[in-house]
Design the sequence.
């Protein structure tokens, strides 16, 4: 997580305001603020793009949370999410919102089929959300096996779905496999040895294919 928290702190340590401050570096001021931060509040004002949809949330809110925890020697810093687009704007814990979003979007069979039906663009959207799941794991410690288990079974271990995504957007499909392997390698997910071996094999095949070394799997013969 420090690889995201540290760059966030470096980018946000500049001061603007009184006394002619026009972007002067004040890392010591930021460290002081982070060391006294108990809770972070993030407002979400779009029903279309939530925490799990785009990188800005984990790269900013998640990285801020991580930077504050590092500044406090590892002490947990809370994070509340306020969804301002609906009638119920009661703050909810970050983990609760992440679970809800993953169940309603990425891990929702209807959402998955709708994205796959969109071809290359849909595969890209799925791929981006896999990257975001790694981002939330790195910054906020969101590492729940059920989410990765279901993502793998839905998008990469299902033969029909994986073939559809591979054909639509090989780069995006390769990234899905890469992020799953990254999650396993970084302790965010504990897949079975069988699943891990399968993903490694698939990623190797995709890597060869994208490098022009391998060949796509043969198409099944149609029955006469």
Sequence:
């Amino acid at each position: 997580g420090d690889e995201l928290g540290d760059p966030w702190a470096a980018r946000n340590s500049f001061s603007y305001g009184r006394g002619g401050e026009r972007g002067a570096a004040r890392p010591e001021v930021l460290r002081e603020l982070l060391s006294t931060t108990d809770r972070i509040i993030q407002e979400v004002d779009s029903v279309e793009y939530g925490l799990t949809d785009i990188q800005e949330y984990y790269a900013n809110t998640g990285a801020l949370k991580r930077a504050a925890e590092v500044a406090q020697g590892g002490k947990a810093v809370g994070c509340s999410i306020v969804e301002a687009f609906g009638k119920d704007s009661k703050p909810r814990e970050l983990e609760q919102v992440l679970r809800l979003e993953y169940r309603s979007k990425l891990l929702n069979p209807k959402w998955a089929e709708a994205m796959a039906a969109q071809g290359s663009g849909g595969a890209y959207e799925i791929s981006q959300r896999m990257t975001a799941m790694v981002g939330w794991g790195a910054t906020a410690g969101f590492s729940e096996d059920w989410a990765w288990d279901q993502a793998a079974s839905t998008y990469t271990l299902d033969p029909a779905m994986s073939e559809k995504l591979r054909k639509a957007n090989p780069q995006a499909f390769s990234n899905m496999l890469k992020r799953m392997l990254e999650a396993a390698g970084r302790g965010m997910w504990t897949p079975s040895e069988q699943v891990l071996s399968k993903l490694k094999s698939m990623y190797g095949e995709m890597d060869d294919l994208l490098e022009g070394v391998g060949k796509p799997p043969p198409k099944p013969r149609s029955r006469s």
In short: The chain has a mean pLDDT of 89. The beta strands are 14-17, 21-25, 39-44, 78-83, 92-93. The two ends are 55 Å apart (CA to CA).
